[in-house]
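Lecture notes, unit on binding sites. The following record was shown on slide 14. It pairs a sequence with pyridoxal-5'-phosphate.
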Amino acid sequence: MTLLNPGPVTLSPRVRKALQGPDLCHREPEFAQLTLEILESLEEIYSTNSSHQAVLLASSGTGAVEAMLGSLAPGDGLTVVAANGVYGERMASMLDAMRKPYRLVSAPWNEPVDIEAVGRCLQSHPEATHLATVHHETTTGRLNDLQNLGKLCSKHNCRILLDAVSSFGAEEIDFKVLPLEAVAGTANKCLHGIPGAAFVLLERESMTGKESQACSLYLDLFRYREQRKTGYSPFTQPVQSLYALREALEELQEEGGWKARRCLYQQRSQQLRDELENLGVQTLLDPKEYASMLTSFKLPNGRSYEQLHADLKEEGFIIYAGQGDLKKTIFRLATMGHIPPPEMERLCAALRDHACPTAPSTE
Ligand SMILES: *Cc1c(COP(=O)(O)O)cnc(C)c1O
């Protein structure tokens, strides 16, 4: 099967092989070594070694986002959440569950983050200390503009808590310019590892000398940061997932890092958009608004998602449905993971056979 869902991704042969590494106790020095190598590689992707430290968690991406908000969003001040999709709105739901104060500035899912409304919100809430937002909003495939949000935050003395779960490793994240206190990512999207490990890149000065405000014991980032110097973790880590991640990070580096990966994703996405455009299938957003690794397409006339999914699955491809109100109207194709050129060709052929709006009904 080739996975075109936005993670987990199809593994490369060498990452799959790495899963067969030796059994390992997470209290042995070999494990500490494995962890330290991964932390270092994660910090090297955007050359953040001097400004931000990686903290590894045994969770999916959501766990990393929740740990970030639970540990850093203030219990007294205010967090402004700038959302334009499922994942931004989920950050607000997390703060809700944690009973932390927030204001949600929500834009329609097919539109950019409402920067003016965010500006007004920050203006009228001087107690706001943080802005939580999503980099690549996987709901639609839009790459949100961090530059202008960053300027706004700097002006209002706010720190950004960024969900970069579906962009980390393949899009630009300007750690030098953006006021990023923390960035959450995962092993199994653009980094090409397997599910089970997620991480937060945490600003070195963050909370130093202060009492942890974390509202969870297991997801307290500072607890992990305390132990990270040694390579150990307070709790059991997903050893095999970390074997895979170490290999995947090495592969990323050999291939030329995030820029090369963005380029590869862009080529694949362009190939799919061209193919589908020829078939008369339209993109949901203006093509220039997409991140490199995902495109949302309007379902062709007369094709239900369920039927399209079933037909392509039969050919060995897993596509991805829309969420919420977009469930009935779009499908999504992600181009992350190991998809060699012949497999891309085969996918294009399968799309020609099954996604054409004018194709005769198969009934
Ligand atoms: C995938 C994703 C997540 C986390 O999803 P998990 O299923 O927990 O890995 C969070 N935010 C964004 C933007 C995502 O794409």
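Take-home: The chain has eleven helices and 14 strands.
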